[in-house]
Design brief:
The structure holds 2 protein chains of 2 kinds. Chain A is of the alpha/beta class. Chain A is built from 12 helices and 10 strands. In chain B, helix 5 runs antiparallel to helix 6 and helix 6 runs parallel beside helix 10. Classes of the chains: A alpha/beta, B mainly alpha.
């Protein structure tokens, strides 16, 4: 009898193996760090991954931890030191972390983590109040060229994606990025109020955040930062208007330093399968995020390039001392 | 649709049994997390978001609103009973409320805060239903210079919390202002006074400071005094409920508190703390017995509590009409809307009136539920005070530590809590008022960044502060509030000489 049971067990195991990866990776028990407080973009990304990984049967359990502080500087420091060599941990990060690490002179950098994949991105937009005399991106460019200090931009925290974009805009049109008059606000709400109240010339934010205001005609969108015109969005790109500025607020996931090639492959495969799952696609649709999956070495390359570009822009506005 | 008809329609949606159940769960959860320091309604909503994904939008938004209102209620309970404000907005309540509790008047203090919250919440929700579109136009016109002027007014009124000695009060305030400088400067992104500790880059958490100074400091102080003369705590002296006199002294502060809380809460950068301080100082000035302030004046509980709850309804004005989240909880509720593909904003009222009015109507219901839930609990809560002091304070220390760690699990945070506790003990020992420290930490950074924003927009021209009519008017009121006591004193002396 015993041998029958063993054989039965063997057969079951073989069957499970034959059913291949899903069963195997059922063993995955992941810990996912969101280096921000609950509720923000990174936290939502982490929790969306948790939902999709479990729903698609890729991981048995996913535990999300929040380590808030300084644009992710606190989280990444803890991640790099505490999770070293652990093939079951990952951390969500994104564009903002690149600038935050540079500005905070963080001893830990993104070079130390093991890149896994870029997941999503969000297109950025420049808006003006509906009654503003500025109608197009070129109008804004001429205003900047006429007197750069008088053009005030409202957006998110200093050194974040909105700030980098304001500097990049000035630089692209040939104005002095150092003189950009950028007014940082905490959170989208406060800056939106300043724009609606016409306290500032223009506002910068993620497109989805201002979409309602644009549709209702309270704000005029001057341009979006996507490469090509987006489906279902009636706003010209900056490129179309002769301003070569392409930028996206991307979010990605990374693994700790010191993991083996095998561990890296397991995590990369899990993320790749998650991205293809229906559960993930549903979440993207519902949150309005654009799929921007980029895996493997291509992502590592992208991360390096973004790092160089953002640091360069922040140096040019004097936020990072060289 | 006419607002009245719309509201009636919303009421019909809100009283559906399932929605009533959601509201009940919401207010219950909200009260629970409001009682715990550190775990606020924002965190609760954040953690519930993924769970409610499968529920219907109306029901879960009603639940979130219940949590929001409930949190505002719960925060005041611990503030009054054990001098541990659950949220920074209930700090002003702790000032007089805890003194009342120690004098055996915990029952009336809790009752006036519960009824005041109900009154304020109801009036403010009515305001939300009928004034929202108009109010939001005014709110958006508030620029950085106007906020700075509002902060100036708030700073002037802070002196009401100074106690007897202005020098000691100012010392406390400046300690708070200095603490407010710690962290990344919002406008340039550079770190200040962080000494290379990454956990300090985000600045000092208000709840950590408040819990450290109030709760831990108090526990240490009581422990140190034990062998001198034991402070006798009487759980109940006189009536457990509000007397006729209490009612008479409470109803005006409730209404005045609402008048502060609702409009300031509706301002995109107004918040809940400023109206509570403004209300506290107003009540102190208007009180018939100002000498009772600092010893347990019921006006000082009724006003700030009403202001606190009215501001919660005020916050929903920009959220529903513009999609502007103006507090952490509102931001989470916005995320809640978005998870159902709804974008709060100018179009929401037109596109989903059932949802918006159902939500507003359920706010009334949540408010009534909170009153029914909280009043019977008053008797139970007050019994807490009968616990022997060593046990009670040990419990408070555990409670304070747990709450802080739950909000931010880090060694640095815990060390800060302990450090602030010792500071609170020393300040009590040497008779420095505590509230101004926390007020400095809250107001300082706002005043600074708004002033710098205003100056950046005006290209460095300080006249911008007077060119805006709102700002000029607020600065004028601040100036009058600052000079009036001196002038009145001078006039009084002048008259005395004439006689």
């Amino acid at each position: 009898m015993a041998s029958f049971q063993t054989r039965l067990l063997g057969a079951v195991v073989a069957l499970m193996l034959a059913a291949s990866c899903p069963a195997l990776s059922q063993q995955l028990e992941l810990k996912l760090m969101a280096p921000a407080a609950p509720g923000g973009g990174w936290d939502q990304t982490a929790r969306a991954m948790q939902q999709a990984l479990v729903a698609a049967g890729i991981a048995r359990s996913v535990q999300v931890t929040n380590v808030a502080g300084a644009g992710g500087s606190v989280g990444i420091a803890q991640f790099v030191n505490g999770a070293k060599g652990d093939g079951n941990q990952m951390m969500v990060n994104g564009f903002v972390m690149v600038g935050a690490l540079a500005m905070n002179r963080s001893p830990v950098t993104l070079d130390q983590v093991t890149p896994i994949a870029r997941l999503t991105e969000e297109t950025q937009v420049i808006v003006v109040p509906a009654n503003s005399p500025i109608k197009t991106a070129q109008d804004l460019a001429s205003a900047l060229k006429a007197d750069i200090a008088k053009v005030t931009f409202a957006g998110g925290s200093a050194g974040g994606v909105d700030h980098v974009m304001a500097a990049l805009f000035a630089r692209t049109i040939g104005a002095d990025a150092k003189k950009v008059n950028y007014i940082p606000f905490s959170g989208g709400g406060e800056s939106l109020a300043a724009i609606l109240g016409a306290k500032v010339t223009a506002g910068i934010s993620g497109l989805s955040e201002y979409e309602g205001q644009i549709k209702s005609g309270k704000l005029r969108a001057l341009g979006v930062t996507s490469e090509k015109r987006m489906a279902g969005v009636d706003i010209p790109t900056f490129r179309e208007q002769g301003i070569d500025m392409v930028l996206a607020n991307w979010r990605s996931v990374v693994a700790p330093p010191g993991i083996t090639a095998e561990q890296r492959k397991t995590l990369s495969d899990a993320v790749e399968r998650m991205v293809k799952s229906d559960a993930w696609k549903d979440i993207l649709k519902q949150k309005g995020w654009d799929d921007a999956y980029l895996g493997g070495d291509a992502f590592a390359d992208f991360l390096k390039k973004e790092n160089a570009r953002v640091t360069d822009v922040l140096k040019s506005v004097g936020l990072v001392k060289s | 649709m006419d607002s009245f008809a719309a509201l009636a329609h919303g009421m019909a949606i809100a009283v559906q049994p399932m929605n009533l159940l959601y509201a009940l769960i919401g207010v219950f959860l909200g009260t629970a997390v409001g009682v715990l320091p550190g775990i606020g309604p924002a965190l609760t909503v954040a953690l519930l978001l993924p769970v409610t994904y499968k529920l219907d939008p109306g029901g879960s938004l009603i639940m979130f609103a219940g949590i929001y209102y409930g949190g505002m209620y719960g925060g005041s309970t611990t503030a009054i009973l054990i001098n541990t404000p659950g949220e920074s907005a209930s700090m002003a309540t702790a000032l007089e409320g805890n003194k009342m509790a120690k004098a055996g008047r915990g029952g009336p203090a809790l009752a006036t805060s519960a009824i005041g919250s109900f009154v304020a919440g109801t009036i403010a929700t009515l305001g939300l239903a009928f004034l929202a579109p108009w109010l939001v136009d005014v709110a958006v016109r508030f620029g950085p210079e106007d906020y700075f002027a509002l902060m100036c007014l708030a700073f002037v009124t802070v002196s009401a919390t100074f106690g007897d000695s202005p020098v000691r009060g100012l010392t406390s305030l400046f300690i708070g202002l200095t603490l407010g400088l710690i962290g990344i400067d919002k406008l340039t992104g550079q770190a200040r006074l962080a000494f290379g500790i990454p956990e300090l880059l985000d600045g000092v958490e208000v709840t950590t400071l408040a819990v450290g100074l109030f709760a831990v400091g108090e526990a240490l102080y009581v422990a140190s005094r034990r062998h001198h003369a034991e402070e006798k705590l009487e759980p109940v002296r006189g009536s457990l409920w509000m007397t006729k006199e209490d009612w008479k002294r409470s109803w005006k502060p409730w209404l005045r508190g609402t008048l502060f809380g609702f409009p300031i809460g509706a301002l995109p950068a107004g918040g809940a703390e400023i109206p509570t301080f403004l209300s506290y100082s107003t009540e102190k000035r208007l009180a018939k017995h100002p000498e009772e302030f600092g010893k347990g004046a019921i006006e000082g509980v009724a006003g700030p509590e009403a202001a606190n709850n009215a501001s919660a309804a005020g916050t929903l004005v920009p959220l529903l009409t513009l999609g502007l989240p103006t507090s952490a909880t509102a931001a989470m509720m916005l995320a809640g809307f978005q998870q159902y593909g709804l974008n709060p904003g100018p179009l929401l009222f037109a596109e989903r009136p059932d949802l918006v009015w159902g939500l507003i109507a359920s706010l009334f219901i949540a408010n009534a539920m909170l009153l029914i839930l909280n009043l019977p609990l008053v008797g139970l809560w007050v019994k807490l005070l009968a616990i022997p002091q060593p046990w009670l304070y040990a419990g408070i220390l555990v409670f304070a530590t747990m709450g802080t760690l739950a909000a931010k699990p880090s060694v640095v945070e815990l060390s800060m809590l302990a450090g602030f506790g010792v500071m609170g003990f020393l300040m009590r020992r040497f008779d420095f008022p505590i509230a101004p420290v926390v007020i400095g930490l809250i107001l300082g950074p706002i005043a600074e960044s708004q002033l710098r924003r205003a100056l950046a927009i005006s290209l460095g021209d300080p006249m911008t502060l007077l060119q805006s009519s709102i700002s000029a008017a607020l600065l004028g009121v601040a100036l009058i509030a600052l000079l009036a006591p001196f002038v009145l004193k001078g006039l009084g002396r002048f008259k005395a000489n004439e006689d």
